[in-house]
Amino acid sequence: MIARDSMGTSPQTVSGGVPGLRYRRLFEAVRDGILILDITSKQIVDANPYIRELLGYTLDEILGKEIWEIGLLKDQAASQRAYAELEAHGFIRYEDLPLESKDGERREVEFVSNVYDEGEHGVIQCNIRDITERKLAEARRDQRLVQTEKLRLLGELARGVAHNLNQSLGLISGYSDVALAALTGPTVDREALRSSLEIMAQAATDGGQTVGRLLTFARGHPDGPPEEISLAGLLSQVGQLTAPRWRDDPQQEGCSITLRVEVEVDTVIWGWPASIREALVNLVFNAVDALPRGGAIRLGACRQGQEVVVEVADTGIGIPPEVQSRIFEPLFTTKGVYGTGLGLTQVRSMVEHHGGRVSVDSTPGQGSTFRLAFPPMARGTGQNGSRHDRPRARGLRIIVVDDEPALATLIARMLGLDGHSVVSVHSGTAALDRLGMESFDLMISDMGMPGMNGWELISHVRARFPSIPIILASGWGSQVTAEEARTRGVHAVMAKPYRIVDLQRAIATLDASLA
After folding, report:
1. Biggest alpha carbon distance in the chain?
2. Higher-scoring residue by pLDDT: 460, 473
């Protein structure tokens, strides 16, 4: 074995030990950790300076210990399993072994161990390389790739949003001219006026929903508790959200892709709709890529035994068997520089996060079907009843805060139709001044305002006027979770654009004392 000299620092070579001076110099200087173990007792008989630095132990503290006692293996049982493997193969390698130093710092190391049987007595040499920084760099790289994939999808969706918004704005602009014409003739054409106004209102609502879907998608992995998800509505949203990619782009290239949604009853699951929506958008985009000459895509949901299965099927070029076995591997892509190799990895991660599984069935030349199997929502899990059927509250004194005077006036007029008395102000400071002078039953505030934004105003109001109910109205309303709203003292959230019924519904969610 290896014995120390009288200074306790320089091992001398004895029978079966490590070779002499040249090895010793390398042993002392190398920037990898080296431990030498007695082959019989498995105790450490030498340790180079780097491993002592990494572990935070002195040489005297290490000698005579087994490696599991100094933070390299989980426990004695793990150590015995490693020695059994070493005895069987003469070599072991762990690529990402956790290491805990004397002071509790955790790192990841690459661990390689060999048996050297020299002379009458052999030794075990363990080489330890710190790979913590490399792992962190890989994690940062993976994070960048995930973000790249996200931005790619967002770019595709943004083109569709621009297309749909232009359609909505075109309807609003065109029918506003029709409405004005109906008012300027010799007699008022009430039917044309009513029809025009209804189309304009619906176009504005559709435009707002388009933006809302993009904002929900952009939010990323959702926070907060899971919720009840009706797959009929979610698959319909995915079809609408991806329409510019499967409908409009192919038409410009002279081919046609159709998409149909087929959803059976009782296909409700429990989870995070934003992440499922993102995964399905990814699969639809992949299906479009598999249909260079056109074809069909089907989004389906059905019950199969104890599972709810979502399918994304296409009639495209299919996937070769050798590729099918690898498509869910991180960084594997068949799209060259145009792919990140993370899209399907993220799909699998999402499904597994929901307690489900994902599979693919494909035949080259005949298309592909991706199946996402989820556990069904247990009956009785969702919330019971709705509070939106309460009698409409009337005669409230309401303060409206919005930095856009036209929007503030619009809200006041909408509320006035229900008999409410409304005061409009255009800044957080003005709202606080008015609240200090008068009593109100309700405050409705915008979120994005210069100087003092909605959250800051709400914080001041909660401190000075804790009893007043608050409704938050915002273009980012769909991004404010119910949990965040409650935490900040908000009773209800409205996403812009909204209509009279949305105001009525928001007021109906307040405490019964307002009704």
Report:
1. 117
2. 460
